[in-house]
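Dear colleague,

Following up on yesterday's call, I've attached the two folding results inline so they're easy to grep. Please treat them as preliminary; we haven't cross-checked anything against experimental data yet. The first protein's sequence and structure tokens come first.
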Amino acid sequence: MKILIISPKSRGIGGVASHVSELASLLKKRGYEVRVLSSENSPIIPLRKMKNLSFALFSALKLEILSEKYDIAHAHNMPSILPLRVSKAETKILTLHGVYSKQIAFLHGKTFGQIAKHIERRGLLWINGLTAVSKVVKNYYESLGLKVEYIPNAINVHKLPKDKIKLYDIQVVYIGRLSKEKGVDILIKAFNRIKTDAHLLIIGKGYLENYLRKLAKNNEKIHFLGYLEHEKALKVIAGSDLLVLPSLYEGLSSVILEAMALKVPVLVSDIEENRELVKHNITGLLFPKGSIRGLSKALEEALLNLNNLKKIADNAYNLVMKEYLWDVVVEKYIKFYEKLSVAENL
């Protein structure tokens, strides 16, 4: 079977990037011929906030899209539907990592969100198969009358680090984009409020970096580590006492899964997608989305009771080992490919 995977990103620490990278690697190991089309191997217009659009337009013109035939074209997220549409594949699949219209509304306002919702309603009907990485996303798109298969995000336990990077006696870590929807400004403001011996490590890059550095400039316990390769980022997580994800909008976070697999307690915003993984005081800790006061209080309590979080971390580890391993998830994708291929050839 010849498979084309299309994604805005296929390398780095982001959720979609790590998902695509693992899927492509595991499919190749199982004998499938796999090509990956992403922004890393497509021309990109250097315009702020336009990379996804640039990827969609330019990748659609690449010769392997226009001429080469595939059994399966498997795209990830809405910016990939244009190259998916023009691809010469017998079966076309789209994996949704979040609710596109909600993200657009959050970043660009209600009017653009409504336009995006119209695209969702009308623009996905031609696709042979839809999958979602979270039950929240699946339920949303099914409410639009679409049929969606739930195949979750996952982690590769074979790639978890055996050693740690411990920079401070007590370290709290955030990992992800430095962008509006990630709520990193809320985390910095909350951390500025508390008295603690802990240090906050911020891993990632993004257009809000200069603003966030200004928020943190008077706090010598906040450190920006920039972009780290995935392997090194995992070692920093492994050496941390707490992972914080203050997202205002999120898919099913692979960073949460990785922290859980490393038995690092997680403190996350109570958005619906996070609550799919984190049950308060059972598999992690929750705080009210967008609340600086709520996060500062939760941070103080967690840092004062780190020894008591071991049971929570153990519960989270058991959850990941049971439901979110790539060895299981890749087989679900293969079965989905085969089911759709048979249907298309009837």
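Below is the second protein, in the same order (sequence, then structure):
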Amino acid sequence: MEFMIYRGAPYKYDWLVDLVEDVGGFIISKSMQTTEVVIIFAVPKEDVQKVEEMSGRIFGELKSALLAGTEIIMVSPSYARHHAPMPHCGIIQNFRENGAKVNSLAMARGVGLEICRMSAMEKSLIEEHDLAVFMFGSFEHCIKEYKLKMIEDLNMPIVVMAYPPMEVEKSNITYVDGLTRILMSFRKGDEQERLNKVTQAVLETVKKIKEELKDDPLVVPPIYLKQEIEQQIPAIETCLSPAPVTLKLDSLRIKLPYDTYADDIKNVHILNNKTLTDAAEVSRSYTGQILVKIQRESTAGSFFGE
């Protein structure tokens, strides 16, 4: 599947939606505004040319969504002025323009927001995502002795941004230097290069995760489960949260109360007269939402073999 983003006027955008569904593709998300519609979707690679031709007919713009189907959490000390949150917001916007679902977290606390630590709640919340991106400061001693030790217990891929050039030995941490909490709009040449540097680090990390999934595939694609849940659970249509069923690399986040809808999610019918619990584990997120973790073939066997 090829993930893509369409941007254009609402004029005849439904033609594109119909074409994506006709060629066996999936609509991941659709954002409607007065003068613009943004659609993130996936289509078979052999049908990309048809989609490009349709996009031209309805005067829209089409680009690859390199981070579509990825849920990222961006972590900074705080959004206070003295922590210079402008790069934080600019980087998040860049990830979203590449198709990612991005959440944001600030961990500073205390008087003057001078204390930065990670609680058990924050650790659980961060580990629910596919990838965590941390923005640290400019002092090498502080980063090595305090900040990196704070995140060393996280069991997930991590991208760390800070100013000083240095080496990080942890295998799950990718370090990017030259980008920290300084005022920048990412409009100048040097600033854009720094933004591209961290974006490339995230893309490479996501690529490694996808390669691991190829070695031990999921029993069923997350995008297929997303479609079945949306079709069989009527409450999804009335959910006011953005992206009520969030696509992740190996799982889904369903933004419905766990206590109310967990049983309905577990009983969703999928292929071969099986239910969702045959292919995935359903659990409660820290915020009371529903997490669907898809099993690997090495543990669940071939889902389609009878």
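For the second protein, one point worth flagging: Residues 18 and 228 are 18 Å apart (CA to CA).

Best wishes,
A.L.
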